[in-house]
Structures are given as structure tokens and as C-alpha cells.
Amino acid sequence: MGRWLTNNVSLMVLAVLLAFFVWVVASLQQDPIVENTLSAPVVIVAPPAPNQTLSASTLPPTVTVRIRAPQSTFESLGASGVQVPVDLSRLGTGQHVVKLEPTIRVEPSMLLSSRPLTASVTIEQVTEASLPVRVVVEGTPAIGYQAQWPVVNPDRATVTGTQQIIARVASLDAVISVEGARSSVEQTVRLLARDRDGNAVSNVSITPASVVVRVPMEQRSNFKDLAVRVRPTGQPAEGYAITSISASPQVVTVFGPRDAIQQLPGFIDTLEVSVAGATQDVEQRVGLNVPPNISPIADNMTVLVRVRIEPQQGARTVSRKPIVLGITDTLSVKVSPPTVDIVLAGPQPTLNGLTQDSVRVEVDAAGLGVGVHQLTPNVVVPEGVTVQSVLPSTVQIEVTDASRKEP
Fold first, then answer.
1. Confidence class for position 27, pLDDT limits 50, 70, 90
2. Which CATH code, of 2.60.40.10, 2.170.120.40, 3.40.1000.10, 3.90.550.10, is assigned to 220-312?
């Protein structure tokens, strides 16, 4: 037996090798070895330290890799089977060369080649600076008004970025428009970092990102805003009534010598508008009854008057003195004009029975300080009666210190 084994051992080894070869050939036929070229995404798995940032790099989005592996391996790779991880957490400031080493997450496989092999990155220190907020006022106020010094809150902000970029920031601007403004303009405005040439600086963060800007407006002493009061004459045809009267614009600006301007009341009349015998609406552009030495600005030479005429259901125009509310004993007020015309509509018997107390014109002056104010009056009427229009639509309230005597 021993001699037989000795004489046939070579045959036995050959048989085993032959069997292994047959098995390998069968396996390769079922799952052949192939080579494929793939694009592996470059992934930053660890960013720079918290006080640092990646300011520049030649890191490609993908690396081209060539892999040899069984066909089944490629089928199981999936979208994230091959990646190029990049760790930036241990790099200091400055320029560095980073190796691009692909990782294959499925075996068996062999990496044959990859391109590119390296990339450069620049790490910079993150810094911050506190800068004052500069308000940039754009546009032109309405004629006769001028913008005052703007107020901003908060008046400083912190800009954060790389040292190189922070060095370029010359100002933090809050841009606000006052185009056509007649009163103070207040807005929440986003801050914009700019360089010395006025160009926007990107890749910075600003805290807070927005500020509140208020630009006060002041009317020049030789200009004044006046409420327009329409003067209709005559009566509509029998069975018709005026249900509303309006003027566009409702307020006009006039100018002239300072003394003459200061003596003007808070309203200006139109020239007469005839509604005699009217059975339909009257729409007419009319001039203004301008006092001597006073001139309207170019856009206010005339106003468009609309008088609505409707079959009479019940309408009445009454005049009332405005009642000023909310004024303390230490202040005194002067109202201009002294009376307000109110066009009312409702059941005719109710309108015929209106008394002085049943229709009131109230002006809320609570909280107003010394000075001249334009306010919108509130009309109180009985139930069932509606207010069609109020002429003028605003009244002027002049508040003075009651303790001061006139010189």
C-alpha cells in the first residue's frame, strides 16, 4: 500500500490541480474578472478647525479610477461604493497638497490607477471685526421736504470671514430709499459689506444681518402742505343729490415767502365747481383759490374734482366743528379749518332729524407734542347713517404750550 502511494503521489497532485483548474475556469465563466473605469466623488469627511476655513482649493468633484474585480463586485458597488475621502481637520493655516486616495468599499477588488493623485488646498484663519453701520440714503423726498440725519439701530455690526477678505471690507451699508417721502421713513434693512470702491464683498457673514433705519423728514419753512376743500355750487336736479365729493390730490404743496406761508390755514379751496341741475356725476379739473404771494408747485396747479350725483335716497351735507380729544391742560390747540363739511347718506327722516350732538367730528391728538400736525378726523354718526365723504379729509392741529404767553 505504501509503495502504491509513493508510486502514485504525483498523479494524485496532478488530479487535485486539475480539479482546481476546472473549478476556476467554471467560476470565471459564471463571474468573470473585468476592468472598469469609474468616477469616484471627492468627499470632505472632516472640515477645517472651527476657527479656520477653506478659502481656496483645486479639489476636483470626482476622481477617475480604474478597478479590476469580478463582475458581481461592480454590480454591488452602488452609488457610494467608491469614494475619495479628504480630511482637512488636521491641516494648519497655509497651502497644502492633499493626496486623493480612493476607497473601495466592496471586496474582492483591485485599484489599478486613479487620476488626479493630489490637489492643493489653502486654509485661512477666520477673524472678525466690529464696524459702524453706514446709512446710504437714496432717492429724493417730495418737493418742499428735506431728509434729516438718519438714525440706525444698532449702529455697529460684526463681520466675520478670512483675514484677507475682512481686510477688503471698508463699510457695512444700510441702503434706504426716501423717494417721494413726505413723512419719516422707517425700514428694516439688510446690511451689505462693501470695499473702498463701493463693490460688494462676498464670502462674509454679518451679525446682525439687518438693522432698523429711520430717516426723519422736515418741511422747509417756505413750503406747506394744505388739505384741498372742494367748493361745489348750485343744486343737482330735483330728485338727485350729492353723495360724495373728492379731490385728487387731497393734499397740495404750496410755497412762498416764509411769513406768508406761516399765516396760511391748513387748507386751500378750489375754484367753484357747478353741480346745478346735474343728473349724473360731475368730474372736472379745476384750479385752486391761491392767496396772494403764494404759488402751488408745478404738479399742484390744478386738482381733479369728482362729485358723485345719484338719485336721492336720502343725503345731507352738514358742517361741524372738530372736537379735539386727548390734549392735556398744559397744552392748547388751534384747529384749521374751524369747520368740516360731512356728506351723509341714510333714511331721509333720520337725516332730517339730525342734531348738533348726533353728528360729531372728533380728532384724536393724544400723545402729540408742540408743533403743527395733519390728522384725519373721525366722524361719529347715528346708526343707519353712513359717511360718504369728509371735506377736507385732513385737518391741521397746531399744538402750543399753554403756559407760554404770546409775545
1. very low
2. 2.170.120.40
Indicate the CATH number of 127-219 among 2.170.120.40, 2.40.50.140, 2.70.70.10, 3.40.50.11290. Answer: 2.170.120.40
Q: Using alpha carbons, select from 104, 221, 203 the residue that is nearest to residue 163.
A: 203
| 287 vs 290: CA distance, rounded Å | 9
Count of CA atoms in the C-beta half-sphere (13 A) of 320: 25
CA-based radius of gyration for the chain? 43
d(CA 312, CA 348): 9
Asked if omega into 208 is within 30° of 0 (cis), the reply is yes
> Quick check: pTM over 0.70?
no
Taking the C-alpha atoms of residue 321 and residue 323, their distance in angstroms, rounded to an integer, is 6
In the DSSP assignment, the letter for residue 237 is S
Q: Which three cell numbers stand for residue 289?
A: 383759490
Contact in structure between 66 and 36 (CB atoms under 8 Å): yes
Could you give phi then psi for residue 300, rounded to 5 degrees?
-115, 25
pLDDT tens, 272-307? 999 998 988 999 999 888 888 888 876 678 899 999
**Residue type for position 93:** T
